Amino acid sequence: MLALGAGAAELALGVGLAGPMKHAVAGLLHLGLHPRPERFGPQPVGPAAQRQASALKPVALGQDLPGAARPADLPWNRLLSFDACVQCGKCEAACPAFAAGQPLNPKKLVQDLVSGMAGTGDAHYAGNPYPGKEIGRHAGAPDQAVVPGLIDAETLWSCTTCRACVQACPMLIEHVDLVVDLRRNLTLVGGTVPNKGDEVLAALRETDTQGRHPLAARHHWASDLGLPVIADKRTSPRTEWLLLAGEAGFDLRGQKTLRALVTTLRAAGVVPALLGERETDCGDVARRLGDEAGYQRLARQLIATLQAHPAANLVTADPHLLHALRNEYPVLDAAWAEQLAQGRTRVWHHTELLAELLEGGRLRPKADAADRAPSVTLHDPCYLGRYNGQIEAPRRALKAIGIQVIEMERCGLNARCCGGGGGAPTTDIPGQRRIPDMRMDDARATGAEVVAVACPQCTAMLEGVTGKRPEVLDVAELVARAVETSVEKNA
Ligand code: SF4
Ligand code: SF4
User: Fold this and answer.
1) Backbone φ, ψ for residue 453 (5° rounding)
2) Any idea which ligand is nearest the CA of 169?
3) What is the crossing angle of helices 350-359 and 475-482, to 10°?
4) How far is residue 376's CA from residue 470's CA, in Å, rounded to a whole number?
5) In the predicted model, is pLDDT for residue 431 greater than 70?
6) For strand 239-244 and strand 273-274, is the pairing parallel, antiparallel, or unpaired?
7) 285 has pLDDT over 70
8) Which fold has domain 21-34+47-190?
9) Which 3 state secondary structure label does DSSP give 348?
10) Distance between first and last Cα of the chain
C-alpha cells in the first residue's frame, strides 16, 4: 500500500518536475512496482525452464480497453516507468529502426509519454528527433489521443518489436509493451493498419493464413518425404514428435529449410508428424500488428488442435511460432500452461533439437565435415535470443559439425534485428536505409562466407539483400550438409 501511495504521489506530483531526485524516486518505485514482476522472480525449472518474461499481456476482450488511446489509458505503473527514464540513450543506440532512419526513436517515445502526462509537448526535448520529424511539432495531454497529436502513427508502425531497446535499458523500461498497446487501439478501434498490414490481417481473418493460401498447401513440400500427416480426424492418439511448419511451409525458401530439417531428423531416427490442413496460423503477426482479437482467436484455435492431437514434443524452425507456443499461449490458456509445466508437451526450436541429437551422438557429422565447412557467422533471431533467452543452441549445433562461429560485433542477446519482426515488413515504413542491409553489413564485416540463420523471417530478409554478400543458410541446412552420409544411410 505504501508503495502504491508513493507511486501515485510520484505520478501526481513528480511528473514534469526536473532534477536528479525525480529519476531516483521514480526509478526506485518503478523497480519495486515493475509491470512485469516476473522479470525479477526465479525462472521456472524443468521443461519450462526457458520460458521468458517476454509474453505480452492478453487483453480481456469485452472488458479491458482495446489497447491505449490516451496516455491516461496506460496502467499507472507503466506511466511511472517512463518517469524513471534517465535519458541515457542506450535504447536509441540499440534500435535498428532509428539506425535505418525510420521515424522511430525509443528514447523519444518514452519522453513523449512523459510530456503527454505532463500536458506539454516536445519543444524542449534536447535529444535526437524521430528521424525525418522536426522537434516542436507535437504535444499532448493525459486525456488526449496519443496519435497523432503526440506521436505519429508511422512511428509506432516502424517498430520491429525486436526488444533490443528493452534489453539495453538500465531502468528495465518495456518499450515494446507500449508500442503494442498503442497499436492495439489503432487497429481494433481505428482500423488503420498501413500498407500490406491490413491485407495480412484480413487474410488471417478469412483464411487462417497470412497469404490466403489453402491450408492443405502448407505441407506440399513434404509430400514425397513419407511423414505421417494428421489430417481430417478430429482427434488422434498421442504423437511422439509433431513438426509445425508455420508460414515457412508456403514459401519456397522456407520449404528448403524444412526439407533439410526433416531429412536430418530422420537420419537420427526422429520422424515427425505434420498437422496437414489442421495447422493454422499461430497469431504472432496479428498480435504484433495490434489485432489482439485476431490473435486470441488464432491462438485458441491452434491450442484446441494441439490438444486434440497431443504430442510429447513439438518442434518448429520458426522462433515466432516457438515464442507463441512456449511463452504466449500459457498466459492465454491455463490448460496449455499446465500441459507445458507438467512436461506432457515439450516445445523445441529446431536448433535445440539438432544440438541435442548431435551432442548425444544420434547424428554424426562426416569425417571431413569440419575441413569442408565454410567460414560462418551467425545471426541470432530476436524471437529466439531476446524473447526465449536461447543463444547457445545454434552455436552448439554448429560447433558439433566443426564450425566455430565468427561473431558479429552485435551478437547474442545484443544482436541487431533483421527487420522482419513485428509485422514491420507488412507495414513497410520507409527510412533512409533498410534494416536487413545494415545487418548484412554486420555479417560482411566478419569476412565469413556464410551467414547462418535460424528463422524463416531472417532468411527472407537477409536473402533480399542485393550485391555481393555471404550466402544465407539455415543452421538445419548446414547440419544437413555435414551429416549427408548418415542421411543417405538412414533415410
Ligand atoms: S523493439 Fe526494436 S525496433 Fe522497436 S523500438 Fe525497440 S529497438 Fe526499436
Ligand atoms: S535505455 Fe531506458 S533509461 Fe535509457 S533512454 Fe532508453 S528508456 Fe530511458
Assistant:
1) -130, 170
2) 2
3) 30
4) 9
5) yes
6) parallel
7) yes
8) Fumarate Reductase Iron-sulfur Protein; Chain B, domain 2 (1.10.1060)
9) strand
10) 64
Q: Do the Cβ atoms of 108 and 139 come closer than 8 Å?
A: no
Domain spanning 364-490, CATH architecture: 3-Layer(aba) Sandwich (3.40)
Ligand 1 pocket member 96 (CB < 6 A): yes
Identify the helix (H) or strand (E) that includes residue 450.
Answer: strand 450-453
Is 244 touching ligand 2 by the criterion CB < 6 Å? Answer: no
Cα 173 to ligand 2 centre (Å): 7
Q: How far apart are alpha carbons 387 and 167 in whole angstroms?
A: 10
Distance CA 391, CA 383 (A): 10
From 163, 173, 156, 164, select the one nearest 35 (Cα to Cα): 173
> In which residue are the cell numbers 548431435 written?
358
Q: Is 117 in the pocket of ligand 2 (CB under 6 A)?
A: no
- If 0-12 CB within 10 Å is exposed, 13-18 middle and 19+ buried, where does residue 206 land? exposed
Which is the closest atom of ligand 2 to the Cα of 169?
A: 1
Whole-angstrom Cα distance, residue 350 to residue 453? 12
Give tens-digit pLDDT for 288-328: 999 999 999 999 999 999 999 999 999 999 999 999 999 99
Q: State the ligand closest to the CA atom of 288.
A: 1
CB of 164 closer than 6 A to ligand 2? Answer: no
Grid cell locating 317: 524452425
Q: Where in the chain is the domain with CATH 1.10.1060?
A: 21-34+47-190
Buried/exposed code over 208-245 (b: 16+ C-beta within 10 A; e: otherwise): bbbeebebeebbebbeebebebbeeeeebeebebbbbb
Every domain of the chain with CATH number 3.40.50 lies at: 364-490
State whether the beta carbon of 164 lies less than 6 angstroms from ligand 1: yes
Tell me the three cell numbers of residue 179.
508500442
pLDDT band at 244 (very low <50, low <70, confident <90, very high): very high
What is the residue whose three cell numbers read 526465449? 388
How many angstroms does the Cα of residue 279 sit away from the middle of ligand 2?
Answer: 40
319-346 residue pLDDT tens: 999 999 999 999 999 999 999 999 999 9
Q: What is the DSSP pairing of strand 273-274 with strand 311-316?
A: unpaired
The single residue listed with the C-alpha cell 507500449 is 178
Question: Ligand 2 in contact with 90 (CB < 6 A)?
Answer: yes
